[in-house]
Amino acid sequence: MPPPIVHFNDPVLRKKGAKITVFDDALRRLAQDMIDAMHEARGIGLAAQQVGQAIQLCVADLRDTDGGFDWELDGAKPPLELFMPMTVVNPEISVVREPTTVYEEGCLSFPEIRGDVVRPDEVTVEYKDGHGTSHVLRCNGLFARCLQHEADHLNGILFIDRMDEATLKTIDAELKALKKRTREAAKKKAP
Ligand code: ZN
User: Fold this and answer.
1) Which one of 5, 38, 133, 146 is at 20 to 30 Å from 13 when CA atoms are compared?
2) CA of 56 relative to ligand 1 center, distance in Å
3) pLDDT at residue 97 in the model
């Protein structure tokens, strides 16, 4: 069974992930569990913090989106089917190109809550896969947005941190209600 997804405001979501140095079966099993959880929740990305682990690991799968983005992986353009779902370890993101775009993002740790977030449109991501092999990915559009959102999670940054005051105001009541639900669920679990 896939691991449960942690909701806001669980403290693990604020923890910066530790760099991964061991690429073993346990890491690949965790990545697969996260992929299962992401698929079950119909998401396009999931970070380790969202299953309760503060490490530099996230997964993504954009095959089921409307596309509209471009990519170059290790100097070629393999079809998405060849490298998705993808396991991304220790990602380093650099911005290739402004301008930024606005998009209404969601997050599996914030069920049913969405809000506009401004991000650069094109980035380069240096990362390792589940076997420790290094890759360089250049991408734009929703692909770039997804990986920026997930890399933020690995540093304890949430999409609400990148929303402006006006957007936050529109979801304030929902955020408070979610916080309360998460707190009550934690109390129930505690001995
Ligand atoms: Zn998220």
Assistant:
1) 133
2) 14
3) 78
Q: How confident is the model at residue 185 (pLDDT cuts 50, 70, 90)?
A: very high
Q: Long-range contacts for 32-36 (Cβ within 8 Å, ≥24 apart)? A: 33/2, 33/3, 34/2, 34/3, 34/58, 34/59, 35/59, 35/61, 35/85, 35/87, 36/2
Would you call the peptide bond into 111 cis, given omega within 30 degrees of 0 as the criterion? Answer: no
* pLDDT for res 60: 98
Gap from CA of 144 to ligand 1 centroid (Å): 14
**8 pLDDT higher than 80:** yes
Q: Which residues are catalytic?
A: 150
Taking the centre of ligand 1 as the mean of its atom positions, its distance from the CA of residue 191, in whole angstroms, is 29
11-189, CATH topology level = Peptide Deformylase (3.90.45)
Token reading at 166: 């006006």
Angstrom CA distances, 108 to 40, 44, 116, stand at 11, 9, 16
**What is the Å distance from ligand 1's center to 21 Cα?**
24
pTM over cut 0.70: yes
Task: Round to whole Å and give the CA distance between 48 and 152.
Answer: 11
Amino acid at 71: W
Q: Which residues surround ligand 1, an ion (CB under 5 A)?
A: 107
189's tokens:
């679990």
